[in-house]
Design a protein that fits this description.
By secondary structure, this protein is an alpha+beta fold. It contains 6 helices and 17 strands. β8 and β9 form a beta hairpin.
Length: about 325
């Protein structure tokens, strides 16, 4: 059961695919999406001869509708014809409109999910939303924040935030064999609390041990020169630094840098002139230490920020494509 605090700002995460999407330049069947802010055009309803609103939904779009819980239908506030309203109500398909796109598919799904959520909460639904005893009609406002996030208000109050995880279909990581193939030269610290690691870097750890950065990863030289415990610590440091460089190289998230090796990595970075008490950059990627872990600064949804931004751009381009 959802608590009061939980449902007031409920987060709905999409885990399914939207329509049938193609990663090779194709769009969606009955789904697509748009980046510019919404604009309104008008057309003629051939069936009825009335003026029909055709809004292009995109980032920054804000739309308000009236939902009737008895009929299960949407309507515009002024009673005019609207392509999304007809699409939501099942009067037209996505292919029958030149203005509908993937944002509209998501908006339809979000609104239905929100209504279903509040109607299923009954006793715990202290707001009484979408309950017949509190009236037949509810004003719903949608705001498209970005390609992933949408905020919904009911009767003027924000009550539902939806995240669309289909963006992860557009994440492209650098192939493992390309970790450092373009990064050669000794580790060099920058004036902006940054450091650049490249293939060929060797770090003397003392006791006959050293770390060597190669094109395909980080290796330990000198295993067997010390105790088994010292061998394990050297390998652990190599593994942690390897994870950090792969995170910086867009191969995986910083969450994969294990906590056990973090103190040794931070010690190495400090020896190389990096102030780890502040934000710092490794091979161009910005990091910070939070809760004893090295984490990418600005990381979103557990994925490298630059990788996520690239995926978001691709996804928003796909969302902007019309359904027709």
């Amino acid at each position: 059961m959802l608590t009061k605090k939980a449902f007031v700002r409920y987060i709905f995460v999409h885990n399914c695919c939207i329509g049938k999407q193609s990663r090779k330049g194709g769009g969606f069947t009955d789904a697509a999406f748009q980046t510019p802010a919404a604009n309104q055009t008008a057309g003629t309803d051939k069936k009825k001869g009335s003026v029909r609103k055709m809004g292009i939904t995109g980032i920054g779009s804000s739309s308000t509708y009236i939902y009737n819980i008895k009929t299960g239908k949407l309507a515009t506030k002024d009673g005019s014809k609207d392509d999304f309203v007809d699409y939501f109500n099942g009067d037209i398909s996505g292919k029958q409109s030149d203005s509908l796109n993937g944002y509209d598919v998501r908006k339809k799904r979000d609104i239905n999910a929100m209504i279903m959520l509040y109607q299923s909460m009954t006793g715990s639904n202290v707001k009484g939303l979408f309950q017949e005893k509190n009236g037949d009609e509810y004003e719903i406002t949608s705001n498209i924040v970005d390609g992933v996030t949408a905020q919904y208000s009911v009767n003027g109050e924000k009550v539902f935030k939806a995240y669309d995880m289909n963006v992860f279909h557009y994440v492209d990581y650098t192939p493992p064999e390309e970790l450092l193939n373009r990064l050669h030269g000794a580790a060099v610290g920058g004036s902006d609390n940054s450091i650049h690691f490249g293939a060929g870097d060797v770090f003397d750890l003392g006791g006959g041990y050293s770390l060597e950065v190669r094109e395909d990863g980080v290796y330990v030289n000198g295993l067997g020169n010390g105790s088994e415990d010292e061998d394990e610590k050297a390998k652990q440091l190599a593994g942690g630094l390897n994870s950090l460089l792969r995170s910086a190289g867009k191969q995986w998230a910083s969450e994969l840098i294990d906590k056990e090796s973090t103190p040794m990595i931070l010690s190495l970075l400090r020896e190389l002139g990096i102030d780890t008490d502040k934000t710092f950059r490794v091979n161009g990627t910005k990091y910070e230490v939070r809760d004893g872990r090295i984490q990418e600064s600005g990381n979103r949804f557990g994925i490298q920020d630059s990788v996520f931004r690239e995926a978001m751009k691709k996804y928003e381009d796909a969302l902007s494509m019309t359904l027709s």
